[in-house]
Task: structure prediction
Amino acid sequence: MALPDSLPKSVRIVEVGPRDGLQNEPGDIIPTEVKVELINRLSDAGLSYVEAASFVSPKWVPQMGDASAVMAGINRKSGVTYAALTPNMKGLEGAIEAKVDEVAVFSAASEAFTQKNINCSIKESLERFTPIMETAKANNIRVRGYVSTVLGCPYNGDIAPEQVAAVCRDMLDMGCYEISLGDTIGVGTPLKAKKMLEVVSKSVPVEKLAAHFHDTYGQALANLYAVIEEGIAVVDTSVAGLGGCPYAKGASGNVATEDVLYMLNGLGIETGVDLNKLVATSHWITQQLGRSNGSKVSLAIGCE
Ligand SMILES: CC(C)(COP(=O)([O-])OP(=O)([O-])OC[C@H]1O[C@@H](n2cnc3c(N)ncnc32)[C@H](O)[C@@H]1OP(=O)([O-])[O-])[C@@H](O)C(=O)NCCC(=O)NCCSC(=O)C[C@@](C)(O)CC(=O)[O-]
Result:
């Protein structure tokens, strides 16, 4: 069956499990070796972009406190981009020292969320990014941008798509090569996601946008399909649906990588990822963490 013209031939998966997935894990600090093995397994499964760590304040996000050790421990596979979050210059300096391939800055479309997440206003966050952009450029490091709460905020409720578009445009103008649209608390529905994208893509070309959808209300796959039909070809996912957000109460993990892969495979859209290896990794990490698996596909396929 031929692929409908509205769908892309391939989708790039940005695996955020080791960062977004683990940053909010309750209980003990996850051993560095487990994080390292997770990243190695993900790259072995064919994921060519792994967000591996976060150079943020360990007081704010203790699970990411070993970012340098994680970066030092992984087997760097050729062709794989290992990225990390950097909220400020201190983070960027750590990331450069750890030889991160790419960094990501992050803000939000909601003032209240930005305050809770990075302790400043949206405007201040963008000002903080200016030296990051300059130093990253001088070091030949590409910068990805995240905009959170694009379909709703845990504190401010509904967010106007125009507000999302304005922050995205600012981040693009500053030099981010791609902007990832975060439905941080997973409240979106397909039509709402499409409408948001319609407005945002008037300010930022759709080829420069990615979808980063959490699955709190079980809508993430449907929302993804809706935006893929509108031209989105970069999708952020988390193995086993790991994760949540420390500053968004009740937020569950990102849409599970395996579930997205199964859907894309069914549509005949290429990703370069091996589903069986991914499912094995999914079962391995959930066993390591002693938590249930958030991927329906991994549960259906089971473990050997
Ligand atoms: C931005 C700050 C640092 C401001 O936090 P602050 O407290 O305003 O900053 P500060 O400059 O006063 O620093 C406080 C302390 O942290 C240290 N510090 C300061 N910066 C760093 C750093 N980079 N690395 C290590 N340490 C750092 C700094 O040295 C100081 O240490 P002290 O002097 O008290 O000992 C803080 O709010 C922070 O780290 N926030 C991170 C929050 C976070 O990681 N959130 C999760 C990621 S975003 C997300 O998940 C959403 C996303 C991207 O997935 C998309 C979506 O789903 O929507």
Remarks:
- The chain has one domain: 51-81+90-301.
- The beta strands are 12-15, 49-54, 81-85, 102-108, 142-148, 178-183, 209-213, 234-237.
- The pocket of 3-hydroxy-3-methylglutaryl-coenzyme A is lined by residues 20, 23, 54-57, 59-61, 85, 87-88, 90-91, 94, 106, 117-119, 146, 148, 182, 184, 212, 245-246 (CB under 6 Å).
- The radius of gyration is 18 Å.
